[in-house]
Amino acid sequence: DIVMTQSPDSLAVSLGERATINCKSSQSVLYNSNNKNYLGWYQQKPGQPPKLLIYWASTRESGVPDRFSGSGSGTDFTLTISSLQAEDVAVYYCQQYYNTPYTFGQGTKLEIK
Amino acid sequence: QVQLQESGPGLVKPSEILSLTCSVSGVSTSSYYWGWVRQPPGKGLEWIGDVYYTGSTNYNPSLKGRVTISGDTSKNHFSLELTSVTAADTAVYWCVRGRYFDLWGRGTLVTVSS
Q1: DSSP of A22-52, one letter per residue?
Q2: Which of A61, A80, B56, B78 is the most core-located residue (most Cβ within 10 A)?
Q3: Chain A contact residues (CB < 8 Å to B)
Q4: Structure confidence by residue, pLDDT tens digits, A31-55
């Protein structure tokens, strides 16, 4: 199985500041034939299902604010929130869909400082 | 509007079978992968498995052969069966679309308890 490891486990950021969450995979999730990274990011608020934010490592899902961005390739990835809003308080997960079993990171809890 | 809706018992006895169905509206299940993800209370996310519209399936080996996912394109729904359940299978179960999961149901809490 591909192990996904996120850092940090929790993060407190002031409103309007940048938040950065990292995700590392135990093997590359870059498929060379199409040069795509099979990596997604999700936001989960209490009592709700996760919401897809980013897929192919850097493609923003429709309707997701542009303050959310994804970057990275191979085994190292980053989710950045450029200017933290109160509604961004949530747990964030990365997920690889390079091969089965699809696996998630352990989650990063984002709070307001 | 595309919607996924899980249905099934909220309480299952140990050693019995957990059965859930996901009803899909607004899009045909005759395309895409359709799967299940679960989350035990206070814990992280686990992919259970999926079914392609052709009927081919993929399962998480962690479930040790206890899982079956099937689809019925005529009814536009797909189903999950998990056998020999224990308390460790207590979780919120979601049905999802795709390999990255762009659509989620609202989720259903299944508790395994006698």
Answers
A1: EEEESS--EETTTTEE-EEEEEE-TTS--EE
A2: B78
A3: 1, 38, 40, 42, 49-52, 55, 61, 93, 95, 97, 100-107
A4: 999 999 999 999 999 999 999 999 9
- Show which residues on chain B lie within 8 Å of chain A, measured between beta carbons: 44-47, 58-62, 94, 99-102, 104-107
Q: Which among B93, B106, B92, B84 has a CA at the least distance from the CA of B35?
A: B93
Contacts of B38 in chain A (CB under 8 A): none
- Mean per-residue pLDDT for B94-100? 97
Q: With a cut of 90, say whether residue B64 has pLDDT above it.
A: no
Q: Cβ of A38 and B61 within 8 Å?
A: no
Q: CA-to-CA distance for A109 and A93, rounded, in angstroms?
A: 9
Task: Name the phi and psi angles at B100, rounded to 5.
Answer: -95, 140
Q: What is the pLDDT of residues B21-47, one digit of tens each?
A: 999 999 999 989 999 999 999 999 999
* B47:A101 CB<8 A: yes
Please give the structure tokens belonging to residue B28.
């045909």
Q: Is the peptide bond before A101 cis (omega within 30 degrees of 0)?
A: yes
Residue of chain A nearest B35, judged by CA positions: A102
Under 8 Å CB-to-CB from B41, ≥6 apart: which residues? B90, B91, B92
Contact B46/A55, CB-based, under 8 Å? no
